[in-house]
Design brief:
356 residues; mainly beta; 3% helix
Length: 356
């Protein structure tokens, strides 16, 4: 996806208006209960040759990373694809950073939160790591020195989802009490888009930075104009909770996953259903799209399924985890797929180089 949002230097101006319109002040505070230490080599590493292409039809396990004491709930890659960040659940409150080239831990942020780390994002400029938690807070970390910089407080319930605008200026958070906007550059609140009576599970921002998509526990997807905060439209998309939403690189299609065991593709301009992907035998917990826009990965109780997004064909199933797969992410260069599970493991998948 593009690293530049439309609007240039004027991108934040509508959000300044929203900040003044917010009904309740959103305080900002600091959290200093964490500590960071340099990590040791991963417990289990089985390196292979690095992948040479992005055709995941023949994806293989490259190595396994262990270290979390609970379910791996969240994964995020650095923009250069060299580092993976993972967040732990089961009230672990831990964030781990991994060197993917060597299969080693770079560092561990213990007590990053007081409860499970539900979502992680790294700003497209590679400067800031953002985490959110069941402790109702959002924490910001500098990736230059791994120092904690600020907490955003204001949500009154579990914060389950995060999204960052392509220009790295605006952070969006979703929770039980609605969707909030935050200024990442000034590290301050901007305002509240809307307050909901239902749980926001997932958020996604379009590649041009103009549209926000949200998915809730009632199976509804709503679209918002991110520049004005105005509601655009909604889709009665699923019969159960929407677990994940993502935009395709061209911004024309929205893909949604649900606890109703389906994955759906939507024409973002018309709201029409393009295709339904079926094959999982239980909840679809997460989805990830390769940056080339061709391969979709989905995670559930029955492992990881890989789909050809142009045809809807199931092309592979990866079965390395011993329990539910709870998180999944493609590297920005499209060569690596990372998955995290209830088995407390992180699996790194890729395509082996052909040997002569």
């Amino acid at each position: 996806m593009s690293s530049e949002g439309r609007g240039g230097g004027n991108f934040l101006r509508p959000y300044i208006i929203l900040a003044f319109m917010a009904a309740v002040a959103l305080p900002v505070s600091t959290w200093e209960g964490f500590y960071i230490h340099q990590a040791h080599a991963a417990i289990e590493v089985t390196p292979n040759s690095p992948p040479a292409n992005t055709n995941f039809a023949n994806a293989q396990l490259i190595y396994t990373l262990k270290g979390h004491n609970g379910t791996v709930k969240s994964l995020a890659f650095s923009p250069d694809s060299r580092m993976l960040v993972s967040g732990g659940a089961e009230n672990e409150g831990v964030i781990r950073l991994w060197n993917l080239a060597k299969g080693k831990k770079l560092a561990t942020i213990n007590k990053a939160h007081k409860a499970a780390v539900e979502s992680l994002v790294i700003s497209p400029d590679g400067q800031t790591l953002v985490s959110c938690s069941d402790d109702d807070t959002i924490n910001l970390w500098s990736l230059k020195n791994l120092k904690f910089t600020r907490s955003f407080v204001g949500h009154t319930s579990n914060v389950l989802s995060l999204a960052v605008s392509p220009d790295s200026k605006v952070l969006v958070s979703g929770a039980l009490d609605g969707i909030r906007l935050w200024d990442l550059l000034q590290q301050r609140p901007l305002g509240t888009i809307v307050r909901f009576d239902n749980l926001i599970y997932t958020l996604a921002i379009s590649p041009d930075g103009q549209t926000l998509a949200s998915g809730d526990n009632k199976g509804v997807i709503k679209l918002w104009n991110l520049s004005t905060g105005k509601f655009i439209s909604e889709l009665a998309a699923h019969s159960s909770a929407v677990s994940d939403v993502i935009f395709t690189p061209d911004g024309q299609t929205l893909i949604s996953a649900s606890h109703d065991r389906t994955i759906k593709q939507w024409n973002i301009n018309t709201g029409e259903l393009v295709r339904t992907l079926t094959g999982h035998n239980n909840w679809v917990n997460a989805i990830a799209l390769n940056p080339d826009g061709q391969t979709l990965a989905s995670a559930g109780r029955d492992g990881i399924k890989l789909w050809d997004l142009t045809t809807g064909e199931l092309i592979n199933t990866l079965s390395g985890h011993t329990d539910w797969v709870s998180a999944i992410a493609f590297s920005p260069n499209g060569k690596i797929l990372a998955s995290g599970g209830f088995d407390r493991q992180i699996k790194i998948w890729g395509i082996p180089t052909k040997r002569k």
